[in-house]
């Protein structure tokens, strides 16, 4: 994979801290760094050296035309409530998770519900797995 013109051979998920305020006050615009710390994101490496960082945020129509900045997901499927997810479940960050999801987990390695990574979300009716397609 190539991101920002650099070869990537590793990646990881950085869980944000939902307890951080969305902005310092009503007059302050949130910076990209603050958004990353609050929302979380992905870090991309090449042989252990950081080459790119992507914050998690709701998509916009302008981003949908830039494949290297977006993730595409398959439809969510209900999985067993005991399905393990590496990293554990965290509180949902506002703005980008499916409606009514309470917790989420990013599964980087292949598992029963995904072959190329996925997000798992807890809902009142159970856990749904959304495999990453691209």
Write up what this structure looks like:
6% of the residues lie in helices and 34% in strands. By secondary structure, the protein is mainly β. The chain has two domains: 1-70, no CATH class; 72-134, no CATH class. Strands 6-10-9-8-7 form a five-stranded antiparallel β-sheet, with no helix packed on it. It has a three-stranded antiparallel β-sheet with strand order 3-4-5. Strand 4 and strand 5 (49-55) form a beta hairpin. The N and C termini lie close together (11 Å).
Task: Outline the fold blueprint.
Layout: E1 2-3, E2 6-7, E3 10-15, H1 32-39, E4 40-46, E5 49-55, E6 77-79, E7 90-91, E8 103-107, E9 118-123, E10 126-131
Antiparallel strand pairs: 1-2, 3-4, 4-5, 6-10, 7-8, 8-9, 9-10
Strand content: 25-35%
- Low-pLDDT residue spans: none
End-to-end C-alpha gap: 11 Å
Helix-residue proportion: under 10%
For the sheet with most strands, the description reads:
5 strands, antiparallel
Q: Give the spatial strand order of the biggest sheet.
A: 6-10-9-8-7
Number of DSSP E strands: 10
The gyration radius over C-alpha positions equals 15 Å
Query: What's the total helix number?
Result: 1
Describe the global form.
globular
Number of domains: 2
Order of secondary-structure elements: EEEHEEEEEEE
- Structural class per helix/strand content? mainly beta
Mean pLDDT value: 78
